[in-house]
Amino acid sequence: MKLESNAITAALESSTKYPLDVMSALRAHLGEEPASTTADETINNIPKAQVMDTYLSSKGNPNDRALIWESVDKIFWFSLDKMSENNEGNLLSSYNVEVMQHVRNALSGDSNNSTLDSQIMSMKKNDVMEKFLESYGSTITGADARRIINYIFGVNLDGISALERSRLTLYSKGDYELLTPTDIFIVSSNKGDVSLFVGVTEYFTQQTGLDSLPQGIATYLEELGFALNPETKKHEYHNSTAESVSDPFKGQVIFPVVNYIKDHYAKI
């Protein structure tokens, strides 16, 4: 696993956790001067979802895809533009009703015009979001933006926020969504999140001498339908429907893995 060339590296090497415009908004929100560093330690521990809310609120919660995407770049350290360009995101036959109705309305003025659905599903993710926002209204909160991002891209920013400091590497949609040098396990996926892969990091192997998952968590994953690939040393799950694995199933995978890290490897 290489840290080079990832946006997370730049964030780790920065003198502040977030770029200065984000830091200034957060400092002001906490009652500090924009240039003051007094509250920076507090800011470092604020959940990323809350940071995004505060930053977008400081801008007036505008209905502006570029600004929303910029907030994800600056706060979560990965690019939705890159994902869209690479045709990454939910691999589904249709988006949920809310997304479809707004995009249909933007395209034709009729939210029930299902004749447009094949066109919508062939659009780039950025374009889907643009059309959604065109119909949505003049402002959108950070929470609603994250919800729609998850519907369109299958990127659960609230979940990623909750997993910060979990020591789990998360690689999905062609980019690292979580990554630190001392992570223990890695959960990754292929294009569209149709298959999931769970393995150990180089750091874990260096610390323990093990190159595959410990039996305790391996057994749990096998009960969910994973199987060990003897060549990669990773446990693999392949969705039989050829669609994206659901968020609830990802939760069944990720949170027990995180708890296993806490219970067994907190000191390495």
Low-confidence blocks of residues: 1-5
Annotation, overall tally of beta strands: 6
Tally the structural domains. Answer: 2
Please estimate the helix content. 40-55%
Radius of gyration: 20 Å
Q: How far is it from the N-terminal to the C-terminal residue, by CA?
A: 18 Å
Instruction: Please describe the biggest sheet, giving its number of strands, its sense, and whether it closes into a barrel.
Output: 6 strands, mixed
User: What is the H-and-E element order?
Assistant: HHHHHHHHHHHEEEEHHEEH
- Broad shape: flat
Strand arrangement across the biggest beta sheet: 2-1-3-4-6-5
* Overall average residue pLDDT: 94
